[in-house]
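How a chain folds remains the central question behind the approach discussed here. In the encoding step, the backbone of a single protein was reduced to a row of integers, each denoting a local shape. We regard such an encoding as a compact summary of how the chain folds. The sequence in question and its structure tokens are set out directly beneath this paragraph:

___
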Amino acid sequence: MKKIYYLLCLLPLMPLVSSCDDEEAEVVLLQNPESQPVTLSSITPDYGFVGDQFTLTGTNFGGGVDFIQVFIGENEAEVLTCTDTEVKVLVPKEATTGRISVRFMGQEVNSDLMFRVMGKPSVEQMKPLFGLEGTQKAWGFVGSEVTFSGSELGGSQEDVKVIFKGATNTPAEIVSWSEEEFKVKVPEGAVSGKLTLTVGSQTVNTPYEFRLVEHATVSGITPQQGYKGCEVTISGKGLGDETTKGQTKVWFGDKAGTVLSCENEKITVKTPNSLEEGKEYNVILATPFETINLEGKFNVAPSPVISVDDIPEDRYIGETLIIKGQNMPVKADWESINVHFGDVQAVLAPEDYTVDNAGNGILNVTVPHGLAAGSVPVVVEIAGIEFMRKNITIMMAPEITAVDCPLVVSGGTLKLLGTSLGTDSSKFSEVMFGNQVASISSVNETELTLTVPNFTGNNIDNVLISFNYQIAEGRILEMKVPQTINVMVPGNDITSYVLKNYERPFRGEGGFTGGEWDVLSDWTRNQSLINAGVGGLQYPAITGGRDPEGVIALHKWGKAATNGKLYQNVKLPVGEYKVTIAEVTSGGNNGQRRDAVFAAFEGTTDVDIADYAGNSYPDAAKGCLGYIVLTPPDVTNVTKEFKFEVKDKAKDVVLGFVSCTGANVWITCSSVKIELLND
């Protein structure tokens, strides 16, 4: 049956075109021509003279001479007729022997089919070749020889000229010549690409492109000692790429390794499992182009032996699993050890692993969270090789997942959040808050409340909390809170815990470059300030330029903003706090507004901070913990302060400035300080 192909863009013309075609023809809509790829299967005859015809057989040719192009090497042939499975072609006068390729509706199909043009110079083969059939290329090093074979290759050596890409000024040196074969030397400057061959005045097709290869150099093999079946890396340059991987071999003595990846500067190889432990092997690298004997040898280390009999039948999540082995890695190589519980990898640290001089090692592994109860395979891998596998039963256990507030007050309380904590506080023991003993005030399934020890002196950073939990008779689970705590001692400055970028020198998003204005880093601006272009940071004028340490600025010359808010948020524990704003300065055009407060509200965003109500700030705003009026009246280098209290439980608090400013006023300050007051 005849096929008629329509491009989707020609659909409006289909009724007109179809009326002229065979009523029994199959209509194919070419919305995506690649969905019906062209295939080439045979050529008849496969030789002939200029002006002769040949038939190309295949599939999905389209049935129209206007859709398809046929090439002999680089020479386009005239398509005489076309059906869906056959194309008749006329050999053009400029053609020489070459491989057949087809272009159809954006597809380019290459083949190994060769048409030999009689009475013309012909190259039918080149050596050496590299690659799989259909993608082969001739190859060579600079200075090596490439052989061309065919027929009618000139009447003398002087008739032949080969130009390599990259070395276009000088024809390659002809090493030897006959009418059926000649050899050329790859010149300096040559690069990979198509060759240009002329015999006399005739440009001649070549069946393959050329690939320039650089000589490989090897700098070493790492590690030089490992287990049989381990991965090693050969380093150097010119080692190959993904196209050479399949034809690259690495030999350990007479045993071939498995090449896993091949790149210009490294080859990764899996050593053979048949290597003998304790034996030393010569290593040979064979690329598709050359063979290199490596200077270093590979030593096969005795394989670790881990007895499954020492592995218990069950473990709770968070409990320690002790794994013992012989021939274990030295301490420095502890990171080569990986333990998996099903799909979950256990977290290991240097202190979890000990090993003696005889290679007897002990690994303490904490059963990771994220596992489901039931049977799970425990797998021990060393240097990427599996040395132990055993199924054990995983049982659920209590877990601390977070702290309610990472800031605590000395002598206050801390709430830990978790799962399956139970209600029996007697199961908890050795509750340590840093190096001090803490007590439990209450516990339920999801919350554990601790009484914070009484610390004195300075604030204490990054305190670790740990305790023991009795999960069953005779089985104790050592638990650590996954987050450290900062302890605030009453009477101290706690600003560094509460705010960022709160004193000079201030950090701006753009950094000081000599200009006057910047956006204050770590503080959030509401849309009013953003729309007005007020960034919150000014570099004031000083003698000789501008002060790079900057000041907090609630204004910008020529810009006006109403209810502009510049703020940060933090979660604070129960306690009384004092806020001090230093060196508040304001002024400007007496006819323009310059109102500003610093406030503390329960909440997390600017929506939680009250707006000005007309010209006054609301005293009883919802959620307000406290505030201080900065201006009016106009002030110069005045200190402002107020107190606020967080009651009952830790709360999210938003701290910041609220301002209403005209275009020609200024309101600045030099720092914000937060203190925790004594009870």
Q: What stands out?
A: The radius of gyration is 40 Å. The first helix runs from residue 14 to 18. Residues 326 and 445 are 43 Å apart (CA to CA).
